[in-house]
């Protein structure tokens, strides 16, 4: 099932190597790309005069871009045929830049004939939204096909699927159920997620609830007498002190949430196993030690095997290897955040038992940096500053983290000092501008505008101070952490300011002198302040559209780096590739990185 191209590059290139060479050259040489992807931060946008728009967008582009409506601009950037003449001709340098971004962004459409989803049984799909159903149904089929092909090639069966960061275990549960009936090892760091997943396993028929005899009358009385809802820690202490919790007549009175979920191996059926483990690198030796080897004796002496993918060669091959006792793993994950994707990819190299991987990454902003500190800003726009209201405990991403980006030697040593993407660039890499609607665009443009206006107001009223420019770039302001606010806060600028101030006041670790600096300002004054600067919103929306469009190359760099890492380990990896596995319109982080061991 190896695709024709090992990475889904555009038709402009003759080979993967030619594409990679051009991608690296463009990302290193284009100043406007580097500025738009890492050099623009919302906090600084209006704290300078003129706004940052006039410093980061080339002069010959500015007036033409400002005349475009939001959706017209998005169509021009991503969908319009650039060869078609326009009445209002765009600058040639802008057209060239758009062509460069388009050709260096990986193709994201599913191959023709691979659009159909497998229908999930109701008891398996319960709790899933349509997006999750699409992802799980497609990925379960995909992972099994990769495993089957690896088994046929090697002559040895993949015995277990290890799901990195399994969460509620939708994927694992699907693979453990018919028609797949796989042995799943769900690796998850949070006990709360594991307990929730086990409850859904019971509903799906993968596991069964521990059966107990109850004195129902006494049990109900105890439930009614429990006034406050106990915390998880209280529940853990209670279970440790009295695991069985028996009444005077010896009847088990544990609530349903405390009952065990029992998984019973059976011929021809899937099996679920949970391992509570925080994955901090690609070494799975601790996980492997906890994996249960199931020995199921079928009447014929062989384990009955289900051919879920319809591969005509599979039954014969698996019949020959069904008695294989060696643990052979496939590491899988849908949207593993940040470094967790790296750990999953490295597991193929670091663990003899891992035979194949299929990893779909997400949350690139949570990646650490292999080449230096994870800066808040591009070095030419903002220096590496800690927010003035950051908590005292250190939550900064690790500096010079060997598990971070980039993974490959090619990107690590490119041009002598390597390819670096700061957190702002990586955060833009998870945008999906092709999916933006007019309503959604207006909504988040408004949110960004309010945040930029608030920072300007903080500066104007002395809450933050302006920092002097250095030899590398212009001046900036002290950053302030606010985070997300309630939906109602975005109804108007006064509502937004009040919501932000209230949130900052509640957290003593992040409090600022807001009462002293801005305590006497009325909502009418806030509203007037916003209206006075309303014309600047267009500049921000145009810049943000350019940033999100350009960030397709950021994601391409991250994904290509992961593919290059596997290819650089050719002594271990027989084949590796990247291809779209989900519909971009439903799940824009849709590129799966696959590796199969020799």
Automatic annotation (TrEMBL):
User: What InterPro entries does the record point to?
Assistant: Methyltranfer_dom, METTL25
Q: Basic and acidic residues: which segments have biased composition?
A: 230-239
Specify the superkingdom: Eukaryota
Q: Which Pfam families does UniProt cross-reference here?
A: Methyltransf_32 (PF13679)
Q: Where does the record place the region Disordered?
A: 225-245
Q: Which residues form the Methyltransferase domain?
A: 131-369
Protein name as annotated: Methyltransferase domain-containing protein
């Amino acid at each position: 099932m190896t695709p024709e191209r090992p990475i889904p590059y555009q038709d402009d290139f003759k080979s993967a190597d030619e594409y990679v060479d051009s991608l690296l050259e463009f990302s290193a040489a284009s100043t406007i790309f580097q500025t738009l992807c890492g050099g623009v931060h919302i906090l600084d946008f209006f704290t300078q005069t003129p706004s940052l728009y006039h410093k980061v967008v080339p002069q010959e582009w500015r007036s033409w871009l400002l005349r475009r409506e939001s959706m017209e601009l998005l169509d021009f950037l991503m969908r319009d045929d650039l060869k078609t003449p326009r009445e209002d001709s765009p600058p040639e340098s802008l057209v060239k830049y758009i062509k460069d971004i388009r050709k260096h962004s990986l193709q994201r459409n599913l191959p023709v004939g691979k659009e159909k989803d497998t229908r999930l049984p109701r008891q398996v799909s319960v709790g899933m939204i349509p997006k999750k159903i699409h992802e799980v149904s497609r990925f379960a089929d995909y992972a099994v096909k990769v495993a089957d092909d690896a088994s046929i090639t090697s002559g040895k069966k993949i015995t277990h699927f290890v799901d990195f960061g399994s969460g509620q275990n939708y994927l694992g549960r699907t693979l453990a159920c018919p028609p797949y009936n796989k042995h799943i090892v769900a690796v998850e760091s949070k006990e709360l997620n594991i307990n929730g997943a086990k409850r859904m396993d019971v509903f799906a028929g993968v596991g069964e609830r521990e059966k107990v005899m109850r004195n129902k009358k006494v049990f109900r009385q105890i439930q009614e007498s429990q006034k406050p809802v106990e915390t998880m820690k209280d529940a853990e202490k209670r279970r440790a002190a009295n695991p069985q919790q028996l009444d005077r007549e010896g009847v088990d009175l544990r609530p349903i949430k405390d009952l065990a979920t029992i998984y019973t191996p059976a011929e021809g059926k899937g099996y679920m196993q949970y391992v509570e483990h925080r994955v901090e690198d690609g070494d799975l030796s601790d996980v492997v030690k906890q994996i249960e080897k199931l020995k199921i004796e079928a009447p014929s002496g062989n384990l009955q095997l289900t051919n879920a993918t319809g591969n005509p060669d599979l039954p014969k091959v698996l019949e020959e290897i069904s008695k294989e006792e060696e643990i052979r793993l496939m590491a899988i994950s849908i949207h593993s955040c940040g470094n967790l994707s790296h750990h999953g990819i490295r597991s193929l190299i670091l663990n003899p038992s891992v035979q194949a991987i299929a990893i779909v990454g997400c949350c690139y902003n949570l990646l650490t940096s292999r080449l230096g500190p994870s800066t808040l800003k591009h070095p030419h726009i903002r220096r590496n500053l800690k927010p003035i209201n950051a908590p005292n405990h250190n939550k900064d991403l690790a500096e010079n983290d060997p598990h971070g980006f980039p993974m490959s030697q090619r990107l690590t040593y490119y041009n002598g000092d390597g390819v670096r993407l700061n957190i702002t660039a990586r955060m833009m890499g998870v945008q999906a501008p092709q999916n933006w609607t007019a309503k959604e665009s207006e909504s988040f443009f408004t949110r960004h505008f309010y945040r930029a206006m608030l920072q300007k107001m903080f500066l104007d009223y002395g809450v933050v101070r302006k920092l002097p420019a250095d030899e590398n770039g212009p001046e900036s302001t002290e950053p302030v952490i606010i985070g997300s606010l309630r939906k109602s806060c975005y109804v108007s600028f006064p509502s937004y300011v009040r919501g932000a101030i209230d949130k900052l006041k509640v957290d003593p670790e992040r409090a600022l002198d807001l009462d002293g600096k801005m305590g006497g300002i009325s909502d009418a004054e806030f509203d007037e302040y916003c209206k006075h600067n309303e014309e600047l919103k267009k500049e921000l929306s145009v810049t943000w559209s350019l940033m999100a469009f350009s960030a397709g190359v950021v994601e391409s760099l991250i994904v290509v780096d992961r593919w290059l890492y596997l290819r650089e380990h050719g002594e271990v990896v027989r084949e590796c590739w990247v291809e779209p596995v989900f519909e971009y319109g439903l799940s824009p982080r849709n590129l799966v990185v696959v590796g199969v061991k020799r």
